[in-house]
Amino acid sequence: xxxGETYLTVLGWVGSDPDFKEYRKNSQTTFRLGSTPRQFxxxxxxxVDKATTWYTVQCWRSLARNAFESVRRGQPLxxxxxxxxxxxxxDAGEQRxxxxxxxxxxxxxxxxxxxxxxxxxxxxETPAFAHADSETTPAETTATPFPPDEYSVPPLPLPATVxxxxxxx
Length: 169
Fold this sequence. Notes:
The protein is mainly beta. The protein has helices at 61-70, 164-168, and strands at residues 7-14, 19-23, 26-35, 38-41, 46-49, 53-60, 76-89, 95-108. The strands form two sheets. It has a five-stranded mixed β-barrel. A two-stranded antiparallel sheet has the order 4-5. β2 (19-23) and β3 (26-35) form a beta hairpin.
């Protein structure tokens, strides 16, 4: 982290299809994320939506590839990143700017649904970029809390049924 930068975590819904580009050897994915806060209105005795704030989310390198393969319009996400301002002059000579959320990490909001994790295949192992809709997808793996060669863990014996004497105790 550096001084003077703004870090942010946003819960929201994907508002556009992810756009994937490659610049030399760097991958980039961008998409829009809308976050709409809800507040309880005592007068109406119900929750009401406040104004939606829209962010342009920008992902780089392996996060860009994984986000493009995983994120779809309408899905709930949690995105953590750094706020950046992009400024430019348009064709009419007007100064323009937009706020970009440069993502460090993102994932589906599991309060709103379920997701399945698939480990990425490294870039060296894949000859060409393949979208999630294609026939070539990485093999699914099981996550472990530590590398298998570092510690050995014997499997726990789990009985198929519980002994009635244990249940009474």
